[in-house]
Specification:
Elements: H1 3-19, H2 24-29, E1 36-38, E2 44-48, H3 53-58, H4 65-76, E3 85-88, H5 102-119, E4 123-127, H6 129-135, H7 141-144, E5 149-151, E6 154-159, H8 162-165, H9 169-179, H10 182-190
Parallel strand pairs: 2-3, 2-4, 4-6
Antiparallel strand pairs: 1-3, 5-6
Helix pairs in contact: 1-5
């Protein structure tokens, strides 16, 4: 499938979320749907948890303080945001930036799975325990961060959430170290 075809398919998924009235209470409290951004041909998909205030304002995932740190880490491995694909499990901002509820996560999962089916990434990177636990519920991020996992034909890389590392120097250096493994993991997948 060409990049243009993938982009069109992904737009259809975004349109279906609105048409299907997914999580109407969340939608009513949000300014807009925050679907995703980036290259649908990317070998990497990053998955966060849910949009925050800045994301809700702009309609783009990871644009607040955590997004700036994320961009720095991407630059550190020689990549730009335009070369990757980034989304969240839940596509509307939860009120007060609370964690998404299990039923909200379940409501959005079919759409997230369709995004992954369209993109067919080599590597799915979880940004935080919430996104990891949806796919790998048996794992604890404190024990498996930075360690690639293979399951159901996918390669997953759990990482701490960039927001958690903003004010914690130890976690920041751990996250940067884990993030820096991405090029090597991609190289190994290609073998």
């Amino acid at each position: 499938m060409s990049q243009t075809d993938k982009a069109a398919e992904l737009q259809m998924v975004a349109n279906e979320i609105a048409r299907d009235n997914v999580c109407p209470e969340l939608a009513a409290g949000a300014k807009q749907l925050v679907f995703a951004s980036g290259d649908p041909d990317s070998p990497i998909v990053f998955i966060g948890e849910a949009p925050g205030a800045k994301e809700d304002e702009t309609g783009q995932p990871f644009v607040g303080a955590a997004g700036k740190f994320f961009d720095e880490m991407l630059a550190g491995i020689g990549m730009a945001r335009s070369e990757i694909y980034i989304t969240n499990i839940v596509k509307y901002r939860p009120p007060g930036n609370r964690d998404p509820l299990p039923e909200e996560i379940q409501a959005f999962m079919p759409y997230l799975k369709r995004q992954l089916d369209i993109i067919k990434p080599k590597l799915v990177v979880f940004l935080g325990r919430h996104s990891m636990n949806v796919f790998l519920p048996e794992l604890k991020i404190s024990q498996v961060h930075g360690q690639p996992k293979r399951k159901d034909g996918h390669v997953y890389l759990p990482l701490f959430h960039p927001a958690a590392a903003l004010y914690n120097g130890d976690m920041r250096s751990t996250l940067i170290s884990d993030f820096n493994k991405i090029p090597k993991i991609l190289e190994l997948i290609d073998r």
